[in-house]
Amino acid sequence: MTTVTKKFKNDFEAWTARKMATGDFTTGDVEELRALLQADLADGPDKLREGAAAIHDPRERHRLWSEFFARENAISDEVTA
């Protein structure tokens, strides 16, 4: 499994906390997403996407998720500033 950085963990926690605070996610949704991320960041070929959308490098999948959470948090920070 690709090692998750502290920044990734912090960005994930901030994003999910905001989603729960706004009612977009429940605790169950967060746990489901956490399990999905663990599967997605596992070594080996992509098991969630098929065909041309598949991303077979787990480091690339990690990079994309990391960018997503960081970007979403930055947008939220701009809106609330």
Write the layout of secondary structure elements.
Elements: H1 6-21, H2 27-40, H3 58-80
Would you kindly provide a brief summary of this structure?
The protein has 81 residues and is mainly α. It has helices spanning 6-21, 27-40, 58-80.
How would you characterize this protein structure?
This protein starts with 5 loop residues before the first helix and ends with a helix. The chain has one domain (6-43, 54-80). The chain is mainly alpha-helical. It has helices at residues 6-21, 27-40, 58-80. Helix 1 crosses helix 3.
Q: How far apart lie the N and C ends?
A: 36 Å
Which parts are unreliable, with pLDDT below 50 for 5 consecutive residues or more?
none
Number of helices: 3
Sheet bearing the most strands, described?
none
What structural class do you assign from the helix and strand content?
Answer: mainly alpha
* Percent in helix: 55-70%
